[in-house]
UniProtKB/TrEMBL annotation:
This is Alpha-galactosidase. Keywords: Glycosidase, Hydrolase. InterPro entries: Aldolase_TIM, Alpga-gal_N_sf, Alpha-glycosidase_related, GH, Glyco_hydro_36, Glyco_hydro_36_C, Glyco_hydro_36_N, Glyco_hydro_b. Pfam families: Glyco_hydro_36C, Glyco_hydro_36N, Melibiase. The keyword Transmembrane does not apply. Belongs to the glycosyl hydrolase. It comes from the Bacteria. It catalyses: Hydrolysis of terminal, non-reducing alpha-D-galactose residues in alpha-D-galactosides, including galactose oligosaccharides, galactomannans and galactolipids. The keyword Phosphoprotein does not apply. Its EC number is 3.2.1.22. PANTHER family: ALPHA-GALACTOSIDASE C-RELATED (PTHR43053:SF3), GLYCOSIDASE FAMILY 31 (PTHR43053).
């Protein structure tokens, strides 16, 4: 039993394999957070369960550590719920009403306003094996009048009594997503958020908090990730009384909405966790959680080829067939035609929205290419960008009223496109219909779903349509509903989430997406940093990485084919180069690497990731993947640049069995046998020299 109520103490405990999460109802009826961390005896927390006063300036300090509080009375922290009643009252006083334990791992608390029938249910679900707790809330309007919801957060996490607080998060931009940052939390707020309509490349709804001293292998880390693919907000607020509260949910920015009588709002899920074993364990717990609880399937990612960097919009059936021929020779399992196959899509200036096959590019229909691809033993996949429209398109000419726009202004064009108001029922239906036609008519097994711009002018010119700010939420609700429906109708089709790279990856979309395109930057060196940042929160099981050209188009950097493969083998492998132009030697070399990847793929995608060394603070990056049974490891090492004849370094490995013997094999064929303890204390020698060198080492337990 992971959840329990201690009646004598009026305390609740959520216990996972390694952690305790404790709260209680104090004498004033406040649901006071008491403890979150390594396991303790819950009833011992009773002595901290009492309201605290300081002065008439901070009248109710315990309300700052409330599990979930309405804005009203003496409440000055970032509110979890802020409402306006129809009679003008803006004070919400939530009273604890009771609890219900569901099964082994779930508990819900019922709260209600002291006067109005506005009910709130706070849901907790323990994931004991990964030391995580999923939280969300439901708000029900039992009044006969509408209630305006001004802010409703999914959860409040409290981290108490650290001498110092450090917050780690990611930031970035297009082609440079998932850059790690950390910042000291002093009194006040640190806000991570998106106001761009989707998750965003500039931030991601994941955080970690520690005392400034945790590292990859040690130290207490509290962390969380929110599952919402629209505007979101995570606020870390340090109070003047020493604790930090992390509040997260759908962003309240421009998003007040109305709950009509009887209506229920359900928030996204905000998962939180604690580990005393540093950032590495945090990531492994999140990765396993995604694989076991979030992702729609547990299939291994297929090796794919994608046409984008090779042909961009210049798609022709002959060109694609030639690429497919080479891809099949390399051992590719899924051939994906990216942008440029439909409508009058010869550049990014036209065609978006016209989801019919371009007859000049495919005079015999798409079937000709699909048959060719299937004949070569591969699956066929297709790119779409359903939420977008070029003004130069039949769709826009037929339905100019479907785009986000305010009646008195022009819509801002980004990449020459506008966005469809997916919150409108007719737009949702249009997307469902054309996707259903495509997936019914053609044998398509994979969809890459892109979105190449942010939301602007979030209004509508449709007469009679409600132009309120709830469109931010409706867009995401409808998007999720479309994906859910398509998955249901086409269970054999896999989906990739992409937004000009990694701008829509979060635990919300990952409930529907099998894999994620994490950046348009495919330079293998830049990718190491992007992939590392990504790995803090998200699993290699979804992380798609392509091998592309050298020198790279973005920065002119030349990298060996082996380095490019090693970098891309650390997640789901793809090839995105113009392989029609590759030499026989390059193709043969690549074929060997694809074969090798298929051997190690289960360890990479299903295993445990250990970040041994980072280019953020070293000249060498090293990442180890262990199979779940710890019988096999794959280690990738990358030397940035050798200096002053520096000695070969050894990297102690992690997570092996000390007493077992292992065979160690480098990718140039050297083999030796080492004891687990040797590998974990002395390590594997790297023998890397020069610039941009890489090496893969395989370690197998000898039975
Ligand atoms: C952005 C994506 O991230 C790219 O991979 C590619 O699909 C282009 N869009 C196509 O327009």
């Amino acid at each position: 039993m992971s959840v329990q109520y201690l009646e004598n103490e009026n305390i609740f405990e959520i216990r996972t394999n390694q952690t305790s999460y404790v709260f209680g109802i104090n004498e004033k009826g406040t649901i006071q957070h008491l403890y979150w961390g390594a396991q303790v005896e819950a009833k011992d927390c009773a002595y901290v369960l009492k309201s605290r006063l300081h002065s008439s300036f901070d009248a109710e300090i315990d309300r700052e550590t409330e599990e979930y509080g309405g804005w009203g009375g003496c409440h000055y922290a970032e509110p979890a719920l802020k409402v306006s009643f129809a009679d003008g009252v803006r004070d919400l006083k939530l009273r604890y009403e009771g609890y219900r334990i569901i099964g082994e791992n779930e508990i819900l608390l019922r709260l209600a306003d002291v006067y109005y029938p506005l009910d709130v249910e706070i849901h907790y679900k323990a994931i004991p094996e990964f030391d995580l707790i999923e939280r969300y809330v439901q708000v029900r309007n039992g009044l006969n009048e509408s209630v305006r919801i001004e802010q409703v957060m999914a959860a409040v996490w409290t981290v108490q009594a650290l001498p110092d607080y450090r917050m780690t998060h990611v930031t970035g931009r297009w082609a440079g997503e998932y850059q790690l940052r950390s910042t000291v939390l002093s009194e006040g707020k640190k806000v991570l958020e998106s106001r761009r309509g989707f998750t965003g490349p500039h931030a991601n709804p994941w955080f970690a908090v520690d005392n400034g001293k945790a590292d990859e292998t040690s130290g207490n880390v509290w962390f969380g990730a929110l599952g919402w693919s629209g505007n979101w907000k995570i606020v870390a607020e340090k109070s003047t009384f020493g604790h930090v509260r992390i509040v997260g949910g759908v962003n309240d920015f421009d998003s007040a909405f109305v709950l009509v009588p009887g209506e229920v709002y359900t928030s996204p899920v905000f998962v939180g966790g604690f580990t005393s074993c540093g950032f590495g364990q945090m990531s492994r717990n999140l990765h396993k959680y995604q694989r076991d609880y979030v992702l729609p399937t547990s299939k291994l990612r297929k090796v794919l080829y994608n046409s984008w960097e090779a042909t961009e919009f210049a798609v022709t059936v002959e060109g694609q067939k030639e690429l497919a021929q080479q891809a099949a020779h390399l051992g590719v399992e899924r051939f994906v035609v990216d942008d440029g196959w439909f409508g009058q899509r010869h550049s990014d200036r036209a065609g978006l929205g016209d989801w019919y096959v371009n007859e000049e590019k495919f005079p015999n229909g798409l079937e000709e290419l699909i048959d060719h691809v299937k004949g070569l033993g591969m699956e066929f996949g297709l790119w779409v960008e359903p939420e977008s429209v070029n003004p130069d398109s039949d769709l826009y000419r037929a339905h100019p009223e479907w785009v986000y726009q305010f009646p008195t202004r022009e819509g801002t064009q980004l990449r020459n496109q506008l966005l469809l108001n997916v919150g409108l029922p007719e737009v949702k239906q249009f997307i469902l219909d054309f996707m259903t036609t495509l997936l019914t008519k053609y044998d398509i097994r994979f969809i890459k779903w892109d979105m190449n711009r942010t939301v602007t002018e979030p209004g509508t010119v449709v007469s009679g349509q409600d132009v309120d700010a709830s469109m931010w939420i409706k867009h995401v609700d409808h998007l999720y509903a479309i994906w859910a429906e398509l998955r249901e109708r086409f269970p054999k089709v896999e989906f990739e989430t992409c937004a000009g790279g990694g701008a829509r990856i979060d635990l919300g979309i990952l409930r529907y997406a099998d894999q994620a395109w994490i950046s348009d930057n495919t330079d293998a060196r830049d990718r190491l940093a992007i992939q590392e940042g990504f790995s803090y929160a998200y699993s290699p099981a979804v992380m798609m990485c392509w091998v592309t050209e050298s020198p790279h188009g973005f920065n002119g950097r030349s990298l060996p084919l082996l380095y490019r493969f090693h970098s891309a083998m650390m997640g789901g492998l793809g090839i995105g180069a113009n392989i029609s132009k590759w030499s026989v030697e390059e193709l043969d070399e690549a074929k060997r690497y694809v074969e090798l990847y298929k051997e190690i793929r289960p360890v990479i995608l299903n295993g445990d990731l250990y970040r041994l060394s980072s280019l953020r603070d070293s000249n060498v990056a090293a990442y180890q993947y262990n199979s779940t049974e710890r019988s096999e490891s794959v280690v990738f090492t990358f030397l940035q640049s050798q200096h002053f004849g520096a000695e070969v370094r050894h990297f102690p490995l992690q997570g092996l069995e000390s007493h077992a013997s292992y065979q160690v094999q480098t990718d140039d064929g050297e083999v030796c046998v080492r004891h687990g303890s040797t590998l974990m204390n002395i390590g594997v020698p790297l023998m890397l020299r020069g610039d941009y060198k890489s090496r893969m080492i395989r370690v197998k337990r000898l039975e």
